[in-house]
Amino acid sequence: QTPISQLFSQERPLLSVEFFPPKSDDALEKLIESADDLAFYQPDFVSVTYGAGGSTRDRSAKACELLRDEHEFNIMPHLTCVGASRDELAVTVNGLYESGYRNIMALRGDPPKDSPSFVVAENGFAYASDLVAFIKELHPDISIGVAGYPEKHPEAADLSTDLRNLKTKVDAGASFITTQLFFDNSDLYRFLEEADKLDISVPVIPGLMPVLSLKQVKRITSMCGASLPAELEKHLNLAGDNDELVRQIGIRWATEQLQDLIEQGLPGVHLYALNRSDVATELMSAFRSSVE
Ligand code: FAD
Q1: What angle do CA 99, 144, 195 make, to 5 degrees?
Q2: N or C: which terminus of the chain carries fewer CB neighbours within 10 A?
Q3: What is the full DSSP assignment across 10-58?
Q4: Model pTM?
Q5: What are phi and psi of 149, to 5 degrees?
Q6: Nearest protein Cα to ligand 1, atom 24
Q7: Atom of ligand 1 nearest to the CA of 156
Q8: How many angstroms separate the alpha carbon of residue 172 from the centre of ligand 1?
Q9: Does the ipTM surpass 0.95?
């Protein structure tokens, strides 16, 4: 397992893919099978999300292990502060380290569904920056990724406040930033300009998610605060119930975003592939053509 911070010196941009742990063990096995298709495109790292309130913790760990052992992917397990004390977090971080992982995506996490706002666990952490500092102290050689929000985090008053908080995470020891999904690259470019003014100098990997249905994208954007450009929404509305057409529109939009980001010299692209190897492989293939 290689610290991601060591990969940015390579000449071409990095490619990463995010999985979420499926709800059943059968589905988990299927995910591992479909990862075969992705292995062909040799992602530089693969990240695995961590469920709120412990709901998917064991499956997250199992998914990391299987993806690493079956495909030798460089893994970035996600970790959140939700419902965990410092001692519990130390056990998890040490366990990941002893299992050989050298990357962690450090997050505050979202509140569980039945709770309207984030609650700090007893003897736990209020912000991702606290978790970053904690991991750094335990294992300075772990490469830590943190979340950035091109359209600001939903709880933040404005982008500049959110960016100051992002700067705290970087100063605490984060090696790079992966962004929340966005559909308009100009939002990312504005975010980068503002981040630059605050001397946030670690690499920023933009996160892309292809739209697969209007319902799905409305649910996701309402949760994460990303906006849906009117032009994309218009195309999706015209496609209506034609699922295949919607899929094609979503992949074409994300591909155009990806090509523009590579042209602009971004240090990598992160794909929210929604555990769908068909979607991921189309975008990964577009990535390979763009960088070669
Ligand atoms: P923080 O950086 O702590 O920020 C949370 C809020 O607090 C922001 O509004 C920020 O501006 C504010 N803030 C930060 N520091 C301070 C401070 N010192 N004082 C005052 N305000 C402050 N969620 C999961 O549950 N599991 C996952 O695996 C997961 N993976 C993700 C991967 C990526 C790439 C992204 C972008 C998000 C992911 N999330 C995941 C969602 C994330 O947990 C939520 O967006 C969460 O609400 C915020 O997490 P954070 O790490 O950005 O928090």
Answers
A1: 165
A2: C
A3: SSSPEEEEEE---SSHHHHHHHHHHHHHHHTT--SEEEE---GGGTTHH
A4: 0.97
A5: -125, 100
A6: 109
A7: 9
A8: 15
A9: yes
